[in-house]
Structure formats: structure tokens, C-alpha cells
Specification:
about 375 residues; Ferritin; oxidoreductase; disordered N terminus; mainly alpha; two-stranded antiparallel ribbon
């Protein structure tokens, strides 16, 4: 029994007798040098592949267990919801310790240019978000439910735009990642129920609010689809900014209206969505949590707004994760049954591209490579 120990992984291999070397005199005398060389290399490659897959599987299972522990801690105190931002809007990624997700390594000229692009994209997003916030503050400073109705009408739009572009990529064979479509649909489903709650509370009573929200949504859809086609990272960060504003708005509201909200009954649509029926889609959009780790209790209107606020925090986390290309995965992909069997490192890579320019480049290069 031979034991090989490295700094991070211990591998135990059951070998009995070392195979003759391709350069040994005995191998040369019997003419078996090529046979021993090929068989030894094959065994070595297969053994390395199996151990790599096994190590990757164990590592993924460990990460899954860690995430479950973190989710349990959060569940014990739902008041403490942390929203992680990409970086301080008024600071440069170079000045931050970690910077934005998906940054290239430091020390290269291309990396410095990429950081500048990231800063430029996020500066535009922050300017656009701040402009919309000022308009909403002016129109809805004393009408909370109407403001929430407009916010939820707008909040659904990016996920429609993401899915539209992803379906186009899928049709052309440029990008085929089912997890993105599943998670974005679940996010739109969650935002739709937020909208139904606000409608039941009377947020859409005035025609002007409906007119404004619907026309902003049309413009927002076209802008987001165009942005997502050019730079998914920029589109995801813009959506993160919008979701972060929604989180802060609801957080401020429930803290100032806590006592009044606890005296009011919860809308029926909120009780059905959070506590009844199949909660698969409710778990699907919360990519930072394992399924079944969050089950809200709805007793009054305060509980409803508390959970809406927490939903927005989960959207922020998912949008931040999406800014690292190819990083998003459905939480239902990690189950007890296939944790040890599903090894993404052992599967052939899927069709992949980032933005329409990259997709067209790769579609042109791949046919020429196949001809060779």
C-alpha cells in the first residue's frame, strides 16, 4: 500500500508491484516497452481522473454542508439580512480588497483595462439608478403603496429581458445553461407575487400610477435587453442596484411603520404564496440558500413586508453571483442523492459565450477550427 500526501489532498492508491519502466533493460529484451508504456499511462490517467472527480465531489459536498449551516443561522434571526454590494459606488475597484466579481487577475495591462471597464459600467448603472430614485422620491414621498406598486412593476422586467436574450442565444446554439433560465423565471415569479400583494393593498388605484409604471417597464425592458446582449455583467449589476434600492426602501418602511403593520391583516395572496402549495419556485430564486431552509410565517402585514424585504436581499445576492460569468447554479442542483454522483468537473463543457459580440466571435471561429 503506497500513500501519496500533498498539501491539500491525500490520495491512497492500491498498487502491488511497480510496472517495469519503458527504459528498463528487461522490457527492451522482450520487446514490451511500448506495451508497458501505453498501459501504465492509461492506468495513471484513469486513476488521476477518478481521484479528481472524487475530490471535486467531496469538496462540493463540504461546501453544501457549510451553506446549510449558514442558512440555519440566518433562519434563527430573520431580522439580520445582509446585502452584499459589488463595491462602494463611489470608490474604484482597484481600491477595494476584493473588487467586483469576475475581475481579471492583478498585474496585467489587460486586467487594468478590464477594471476600468467595470468601473465605467457600474458608474453608469449607479447614475441611472440614482436618477430614477430621485424621480420616485419626488412623486411618491408620502404614498408608500403606490411607490411599491411602481417598484414591483419595474422589478420584474430585467428577468424577462434576461430570459429573452438567453432564449435567443439558445436558439443559435451560443449559450445553453438551463440553470439561468430556471433561476430567472423563479425571480420573475417572486416579483409577480410582490406586485399582486401591492395591487391587493390598493397601490394601483390611481390611473397615473399604472400609466407611469407600465411605460417605464417598456423602456426598461428594451434597455435591459440591449445592455444584457452587450454586457451581461453590466446588466446584472444594474439589476443589483435596483434590487438593493428596493431592499432599502422596504427596510426603512417596516422600521418606521412596525407597530401599525402588526395590527393589519395579511393579504390572502401573500399567505398563499409564502405558506401554501408547492414552494419549489420560492426556493429556486434563493441561490445562496439550500432548498427548504426558509419557510416564512405570515400572521400580519408586518410579516408580509418583512419577507418581501428579505426576498429583495436574496435577489441582490443572486445578481451579484451572476456578475461572475458562468457562476450561477440552481439551488436544486445540490441534492443529497446526487451530491456524490454529479461532478461538473467530469462533464464536457457546455456551449458558452459572454455577450453577443463574444457569441458571434466564437460561432465564426468554431466552424473554421472544425474544418482543420
Amino acid at each position: 500500500m503506497a500513500i501519496s500526501i500533498s498539501s491539500s489532498i491525500s490520495i491512497v492508491s492500491g498498487t502491488s508491484t511497480p510496472a517495469p519502466s519503458a527504459f528498463s533493460p528487461k522490457a527492451k529484451d522482450f520487446g514490451f516497452s511500448s506495451l508497458f508504456s501505453s498501459s501504465t499511462n492509461t492506468l495513471r490517467l484513469n486513476f488521476t481522473h477518478n481521484n479528481t472527480c472524487s475530490a471535486a465531489s467531496k469538496s462540493r459536498l463540504a461546501r453544501k454542508k457549510l451553506s446549510r449551516v449558514q442558512a440555519t443561522i440566518l433562519q434563527e434571526d430573520e431580522e439580520k439580512v445582509v446585502v452584499e454590494k459589488s463595491f462602494d459606488p463611489r470608490s474604484s475597484p482597484e481600491k477595494e480588497g476584493e473588487g467586483t466579481s469576475g475581475e481579471p487577475p492583478d498585474g496585467s495591462s489587460s486586467g487594468g483595462f478590464e477594471k476600468w471597464i467595470i468601473k465605467f459600467e457600474q458608474s453608469i448603472n449607479i447614475f441611472l439608478t440614482d436618477s430614477v430614485i430621485k424621480i420616485l422620491d419626488t412623486l411618491y414621498h408620502d404614498r408608500n403603496y403606490a411607490r411599491f406598486f411602481v417598484l414591483e412593476t419595474i422589478a420584474r422586467v430585467p428577468y424577462f429581458a434576461f430570459m429573452s436574450v438567453l432564449h435567443m442565444y439558445e436558439s443559435f446554439g451560443w449559450w445553453r445553461r438551463a440553470d439561468y433560465l430556471k433561476v430567472h423565471f423563479a425571480e420573475s415569479w417572486n416579483e409577480m407575487h410582490h406586485l399582486l400583494i401591492m395591487e391587493e393593498l390598493g397601490g394601483n388605484a390611481w390611473w397615473f400610477d399604472r400609466f407611469l409604471a407600465q411605460h417605464i417597464a417598456i423602456f426598461y425592458y428594451l434597455m435591459t435587453a440591449f445592455m444584457y446582449a452587450l454586457s451581461p455583467r453590466m446588466a446584472y449589476h444594474f439589476s443589483e442596484c435596483v434590487e438593493n434600492h428596493a431592499y432599502e426602501t422596504y427596510d426603512k418602511f417596516i422600521k418606521s411603520q412596525r407597530d401599525e403593520l402588526k395590527k393589519l391583516p395579511a393579504p390572502a395572496v401573500a399567505v398563499r404564496y409564502y405558506t401554501e402549495g408547492d414552494l419549489y419556485l420560492f426556493d429556486e430564486f434563493q441561490t445562496s440558500r439550500p432548498p427548504n431552509s426558509r419557510r416564512p410565517i405570515i400572521e400580519n402585514l408586518y410579516d408580509v413586508f418583512l419577507n418581501i424585504r428579505d426576498d429583495e436581499a436574496e435577489h441582490c445576492k443572486t445578481m451579484k453571483a451572476c456578475q461572475t460569468h458562468g457562476n450561477l447554479r440552481s439551488p436544486h442542483s445540490y441534492t443529497d442523492d446526487d451530491a456524490l454522483e454529479d461532478d461538473s468537473e467530469c462533464i464536457l463543457p457546455q456551449t458558452d459565450c459572454e455577450g453577443i459580440v463574444d457569441c458571434i466571435k466564437k460561432s465564426v471561429k468554431e466552424p473554421s477550427a472544425n474544418k482543420k
